[in-house]
Amino acid sequence: MELQAVLMAAAGGSRMMDLTYNTPKPMLPVGNKPLMWYPLNLLERVGFEEVIVITTKEVQKMMSTDFKMKLDVKMKLDVVCIQEDADMGTADALRHIQQKIKTDILVVSCDLITDAALHEVVDLFRAHDATLAMLMSKAHEFTETVPGQKGKMAAEQRDFVGVDESGKRLLFMANEADLEEGLTIRKSIMRKHPRMHIKTGLVDAHLYCLKKMVVDFLADNKSISSIRGELVPYLVQKQFSKAINSPTTKDDAEDQNQKQKDGNINMELHLSSHNEHFLQLARERSCWNDHRGDMSEAYHGGKLRCYLHIMEQGLCYRVNTLAAYIEANRQAPKLFEEPAIHPSAVVSEKCLVSSDSIIGASCQVADKTSIKRSTIGNSTTVKEKVKVTNSIVMHGVTIEEGSNIQGSVICSNAVIGRGADLKYCLVGNGQRIEPEAEKTNEVIVGSDQLMEI
Amino acid sequence: MADSGVTDGPDEKGDISHAKREGTELTKEEKQRLRKEKKQHKKNKERKDDKTSESQKEKPPTERSPTSKQAAHPPTQKAPLAVPTPAPLPVPVLDAPAPAGKPAKSKTEIKAERRARQEAERASKQGKKGDVIPQVPAGKAKLQPSELQPVVKRLPEHVQVDNPEVLKKLAKKLERQQIPLRSDYGYKVSLFSHLHQYSRKAPLTQQLSIPSTVIHPSIVRLGLQYSQGIVAGSNARSIALLHAFKQVIRDYTTPPNEELSRDLVNKLKPYISFLSQCRPLSASMGNAIKYIKKEISNIDSQCKEEEAKSELQKCIDRYIDEKIILAATAISKYAIEKISDGDVILVYGCSSLVNHILCEAFDKCRKFRVVVVDSRPRLEGREALRRLVQRGISCTYVLISAVSYILPEVSKVFLGAHALLANGYVMSRVGTSQIALVAKAFNVPVLVCCETYKFCERVQTDSFVSNELDDPDDLIVTRKGKTQLGGWQDVPLLGLLNLVYDVTPPDFVDLVITDLGMIPCTSVPVVLRVKSVDQ
Fold this sequence. Notes:
Chain A has 14 helices and 32 strands. With 453 residues, chain A is an alpha/beta fold. In chain A, helix 5 packs across helix 8 (212-220) and helix 8 packs antiparallel against helix 11 (258-272).
């Protein structure tokens, strides 16, 4: 077997607590499908037959009852549960399932919605015998107004990504938060790759192809807990480390570096056992080089290589903020050719449903309603004379007559009273909006949620 | 050979073991025998009426296939079915080559034999998985023993791309093997429209599932490396291929009720189709594949699976050691004799063997300098330049357009080869024949260095018939922000041609240095004959 897929679905959704305090992030509905259905569908389309899903017990329960998951996902899902409060990072989760991993792995995050051609990433991984291959996409500005947002959001910490001339080899990766004094690039990198392009407007899709030896390395190095935060920058940096390329020079063995050295030694052991004699012979006789202008052989003789594929076109969203969630709801339905109005929904003739809206299963939409650019979840009841514009309504919601909902997000099982007027609001799970209420730009959540600071 | 009418026991066994070794292919001796029989039958035709001569002609080709099939059968449990056939068959085999004195067999006997043969074939087909006689590997003419006409030579499929029936057959074969078909790209120059032309931007992996289950992952990786040019060069490709086959053999398990010797060969066939879709196979790769298939078919059926696998891996190691590494050492030993102090040596492109020779000569303290000639679009000479300069050899670098200006300074030309053809022609990177021609005009000796495993039984006198078309977009270059040929597909009468190989006639080559010694170019068929007798 070539690759094993691992889906990380234990994330808490810490940046959109308003949505996720009741529904775990992997099960949030996007275009009336649970969020984790999208990466699973991507893996299935590409040809995977088995996926290891790392998630919490709560999500596993919800998965087994979810209609869409049972029907559509034909792959075999091997669900591994971890404790929700264990605060495990993604790398910790990989260490947890180390026994199950027999080959190279493809790690996907549950909040990835994309139509990327995965073979581009995997081809880089295969052709160059890379240790890490990842996917990134050009970031798009989110244009929709986010409900409950007061003022402009603080700009997120940027990611600095350095690639070589061809745009494929990953040379440098750091987050703004880690660069206090400024961006320093080691001379050894500049000597090998004199031309480096540094990009900041990229969104990391959290899709990684990792060699099996990386998982073994993680098992030995328990200090690394997050793939994106720690493992990837470590691997990128290790490409140019002296210890890897010239294993004979191990001069300093100070105590404080001992732990780090152990990490180095482990990596070398894993790498050297991997390279084969014949591959080396073939490479020596091949007249190919990945760079030119200096005297070194292909890949500068380095055994550890990290590659990156940047998607120029196509969708790629990571649903980890409210703005991303809203944008994804708009764009995700375009990925699939499904009828906008679910066949089991009861929609009366006198209502106006625009073409870019989605009505979920078992809905009841009464007369004289107007639904534009919105998503209506399953089992929702919309009474007469309701106007829903630019909104996301989740499952089991009841909207009474005469309401006007604009640019809002209504979570599951909420009840919007008669004649309510909501503009750019976020109504939490199970909340009731009293009739004739007028709310603009507010976040209405339960009082129990407010206590969780 | 066995043309006497007398039944010889050991001779027959030799015949059978020969056929067994070759599987469905015929050895040179058998081909020669068939040719002699053909001639005799033609004489018969003139003397006798058509019916008798046809039945006589029909017999040897038809009887040959059951003999060969049967020879491959003895180890299986299908032997009981095949047992009734051996008795009548060997006799007519040795009857047929006899001159036309013997009367033809009666029609009923012929029919009975044919029925028995068909039953044996059906029984063998039930044992195998969807077994169909495969298409010919590159460059070999296929003999159709079951045909009524005398032997018809068929063109290999990869040079018949403009023939829609051949394409349909190829598509069907690939579909059966579950391998995606790679579609041709762009307008092909009419002289070369019979060859495939693929685009590097449309890799075959687009149509494969990502954790590839049909094709072994190391073969997918190899195919990708071939099509992207990461593994390029005859020796590198062969070594990488054998390495991938080692992985395949390591991960192989014999399914129940199957023989390793036959099932593994069948497993390798779709892989080979896949690799040839990624990039057409080279002559050295073809020879390596033949060797492996022969070794696999020779595995004793009593052998346990683990032993058989380790035996095969050792065979592969041995092949690489002998044919590539030791051969390089031997060739450089001979070649160094030809390099004297003060020489100016011209090399073209990046040949791993020539680079090895020059580095060895430099280590043995010969004083010489090198002129590296390079050509677009591959510009492989840059890599050769880097390797030589890294060693400390002083080099000059020119493009092929300057070769006639630099030749007056040059004392010798060393060329590498992709393959050496049976009529003495040298198949090598495009541009080699130009260099040889100009060198001949300047009376500079041209020495071709080539290992014997690259010797090929194909015969070619021009570079059109069988060649490889690389991605035409490689010819597009951007200078100062302008890409002149960027929209070449829109111009109706414009075609871009990116040839990879060309053939050099033996008149331009003064010496071929092989691991068997230094031979003139015309002695290649002798070497081939000696090699086939050895094997």
